[in-house]
Structure formats: C-alpha cells, structure tokens
Design brief:
Helices cover 31% and strands 23% of the residues. The chain is an alpha+beta fold and 290 residues long.
C-alpha cells in the first residue's frame, strides 16, 4: 500500500522569524492527512481538504491570511488538478469566498471550464453554496502575523498526494503578493505553471509567480521526467534553476507515481511537511533538502 502526502505553507520564510505555530499546525495536518490516505480516501479529496485547512488557519498568505492588494481589497487565486484524467479547476481574482480551493474544485467538478475569474468565479462559488466572507476587513486580519509585508514577494499554500489507488493530485492557493496591483494574477491558478498533476507526477509551486509562469514550472517537472527521463529530484532542481534565470526564487513540492518525494527550494526557507508509506512525518522550514 503506497501513499504519500506533501504540504507547503509558502517559500517566503524569512530567517530570524519563528514559525513554531505554523510547524505545529502543519504537523497536525500531515498526520491527519496520512490517516485519510491510509483509510482509502482519494488524493484529490485529501489535497482539497488540506489546502482548505491551510486557508482557514490564517497562518499563511492564503485564504484568511491573504495580503491586501494596492487598493486594500482581497483577490485570491487557487487551482486543483486530478492526475489520472488531467481534470482541473481554477479560480483567479476571486473575492468574498472563504475557500478559494473549494471554489476551484467546484470548477473541476462541473467540468465545463478549467478557469473562472473575478465575478464569474464568485457566482459559481455562491451557486455551489460555499461559505462567504461577510466583512473582508475584519475577516482578513491575520496576514501580518506570518511575515507578510511590503518586503514579502510571495506567499502560497499547496498540497500534493498519491493515494493507495495509485492516483496523483495537486492543488495550490494564494492571497498573492502584498500590495499587488488590482487584477494581478500569478502562477497559482495557472494549470502548468503553479499546479500540475498527471500519471507521472503531482506538483505545487510557491514563489515569485511571474518567474514561475515564464518557466511553466509545474508542468516542466513532468516534461523533464517523461521526455528527458530525469528522476524526480533532478527534474525539480532543474526547474528551479530555470525559475532563477527569470529572477525568481521559491520552491515546489512534488510526488511521483512511485511515491518518491521532492521539496526543493532556492529561497531562504520553505514551510513544508511530508509523509509517506515509507517515511514518518517530517515538518521543516530552513533545513536544507538532500
């Protein structure tokens, strides 16, 4: 029975900042997620659940912890992808919905489109009965508690999973960079840039979105593995090298079809947690990746 689960809380971790609370939260999630996979739940459902929990906590730059844009509003992005059939759903610049990842899954489940933006995304989420934000200024009150400020250039949460049925899934959610221009969309909701899952690998990225888009980072991990026959860690590190060529830093999490895990980053740190059928849970921030 092979399974694996990896979470990230963003590659914007800054040296000298205490992430004990986030690490404790991620340990709780990775342990609970492990139990869900052992019980036979699907990778897609576990990914959606884990990201929704990360969003709701207010401890990361996503969901409740999102950073305001240049006009003080909150436009959020998310995407989710099911590997076996490459079904995908995404929302961009969505406002007033507590869980963007659930809104993205609504798009995936509906199946007519891959991405909805702005008012269209909000309408679809409302029609599905998703929880709404009554008072944005009061709800989005936690972004300063995890290092989000004018100097932070990225913040994202994500999850990738392999379930005991052999299926891969990936998802990513973000509140975007602090003070971003109204309408700015980064890599997070872009299938192939911020999120990718197929029958080879599941990937979720975090970092400076513009650079990850220019590198088409998430899909490129799969391409390097399928076309170039690279192994997982080699492919992931090569992609981050490409991101760096475009002036970007950050990281990514990935699981391949055999349950191997990669969590590389080229920033100061990346909040991350992982577990698999052959590895006990680990939670790390600044520890170097092998």
């Amino acid at each position: 029975m092979t399974y694996a689960l990896v979470l990230h809380g963003g590659a914007g971790a800054r040296l000298g900042t205490d992430y004990t609370v986030q690490q404790k939260h991620m340990r709780q999630l990775i342990t609970a997620g492990q139990g869900m996979l052992v019980d036979g739940q699907s990778a897609l459902d576990v990914v959606a659940w884990a990201i929704e929990e990360l969003e709701a906590s207010g401890l990361y730059v996503a969901g409740k912890g999102s950073a305001p844009n240049s006009l003080g509003g909150f436009e959020l992005d998310a995407s989710i992808m099911h590997g076996p059939e490459r079904r995908a759903g995404a929302v961009a610049a969505i406002e007033g919905i507590k869980s963007p990842i659930r809104a993205a899954k609504v798009v995936l489940d509906d199946g007519r489109h891959v991405m909805l933006v702005g008012a269209g995304a909000q309408i679809a989420a409302r029609a599905a009965g998703l929880a709404e934000v009554d008072d944005a200024d009061a709800y989005y009150s936690e972004h300063v508690s995890h290092g989000s400020n004018e100097d932070a250039n990225h913040g994202t949460v994500g999850a990738v999973a392999l379930d005991i049925h052999g299926e891969l899934a990936a998802g990513t959610s973000t509140g975007g960079i602090f003070g971003k221009l109204v309408g700015r969309v980064g890599d997070t909701p872009i299938i192939g840039s911020g999120t990718w899952a197929d029958d080879t690998v599941a990937v979720s990225c975090t970092g400076l979105g513009e650079a990850f888009m220019r590198a088409n980072a998430a899909f490129d991990v799969s391409a390097r593995m399928r076309y170039g026959k690279a192994e997982l860690t080699q492919a992931c590190r090569a992609v981050l090298d490409d991101v760096a060529r475009f002036g970007g830093d950050g990281g990514l999490i990935a699981i391949d079809a055999a349950g191997h895990i990669a969590m590389p980053y080229n920033s100061d740190g990346m909040k991350r947690a992982a577990v698999s059928s052959s590895m006990d849970p680990v939670v790390q921030v600044f520890e170097p990746e092998p």
